[in-house]
Predict the 3D structure of the following.
Amino acid sequence: IPFWVVIPAAGVGSRMQADRPKQYLPLAGRTLIEHTLDCFLGQPGLRGLVVCLSVDDGWWPDLPCASDERIQRADGGRERADSVLSGLDRLVELGADDADWVLVHDAARPNLAESDLHRLLAELRDDPVGGLLAVPVRDTLKMVGADGRVTGTPDRSQFWQAYTPQMFRLGALRRALGEALAAGANITDEASAIEWAGQAPRLIEGRADNIKVTRPEDLEFLRRR
Ligand code: CTP
Ligand code: MG
């Protein structure tokens, strides 16, 4: 099915404590963002792809993919949601239609399996809302007080971890993100904007190893594989 892709890649990676934004760290001979882009570039349904880059980004121009005509740039914003909204605006400039599907996927998530991407597209192609890859929580969850002591053990079966890609219609997502941000809502992923607008995204179970590289041990984990 036809779809567009927005890759937010304008973060600084403060929790990685590296010498550069984490999307430019190496994994198996290439940068994380090159692996991430490769997950999409071979797909026949791909209509276009936008990477959201910090206005201070000096690393992107050195990558071979910077001259790839299938990839367009957008300016990143202060928070991830601002970067995504800027990427969606860019899609409108590129001629994308409000009814078109958009997949938003973190630059720092380089290990997306093609089978997961295909399942997401197949399961949601006729869905009225859209949805996201997610993984059921595996460990027992604890609530904790300020003193570091356990205050409760919630029922784990109600909790899933939200992954990306997250797949929504361009018009609905752009409107929901814009209005939620303007209202000052706490928007940490695309689904939370859609939820804020009163709709219920569907969860599609994905592989647990589609991790977001957040801390140094995450990258060590991927490098060991
Ligand atoms: N991102 C973005 N624009 C921002 C903040 C984040 O495009 N203003 C992107 C990051 O580049 C990353 C994805 O959103 O690909 C997920 O964000 P996160 O893991 O929080 O990355 P960083 O913000 O870079 O890391 P940190 O929070 O540790 O600083
Ligand atoms: Mg961040």
